[in-house]
Amino acid sequence: MITITEQKPLDEIMQCLGKCKRVYIIGCGTCATMLHTGGKSEVLEMKNKLEADGKKVTGWMMIPTACDKLTGDALKINARKVKAANAILVMSCAFGVQTVSLYADKSIYPALNTLCMAKEKTPGCLTEICMQCGNCVLGQTAGICPMTQCSKGLLNGPCGGTKEDKCEQEPEHDCAWILIYDRLKKLGELDKLKEMAMSVDYAKMKRPRTFKVGEGLK
Prior knowledge:
Elements: E1 2-7, H1 10-17, E2 22-28, H2 31-34, H3 40-52, E3 56-63, H4 71-77, H5 79-83, E4 87-91, H6 94-103, E5 107-110, E6 112-122, E7 125-130, H7 146-149, H8 176-187, E8 211-212, E9 216-217
Parallel strand pairs: 2-3, 2-4, 4-5
Antiparallel strand pairs: 1-6, 6-7, 8-9
């Protein structure tokens, strides 16, 4: 599992930093490093860009996993350089940014946009696998998620627009419902296609949500 991120445009980052003249940069050694959006090379590149714009980079560090609570220990170790900054620029997913904000009494800014959760399908190719909708139908669809695999998010498919088993909207992608059909056929469970899936209960996707062990999602 990996969190997919992309770097924000430099102009947007500069606008966020605004009048902050001294900046500390934090990169992530896990997902952002793998995606080349917030690894050591990207952090050093960002340092050069900020300095070229006239800002003072008081320091930088790579946290093994920015969303881990050990982030707090890392900030303590580098407290002097962090304290010298007006703001912290975090090159990690949104979870990492929020984790840094828990332990740093500074203005925190994200350098990346967080897109989705994905898994590696083939080396270097990542596929979104779950949108955390709270209405899991994987038991009826042979473990293949139509909400993420189908470009139209159809819970009762296929749409009829497939061509040579490919999606009409994304021709390079296999039709999710053809994949579901083939797997159900292999498992001898085609009868599941006769079951009508209920509409998504979007109330389960309300934000923010809190989960308490033994009590469920609130």
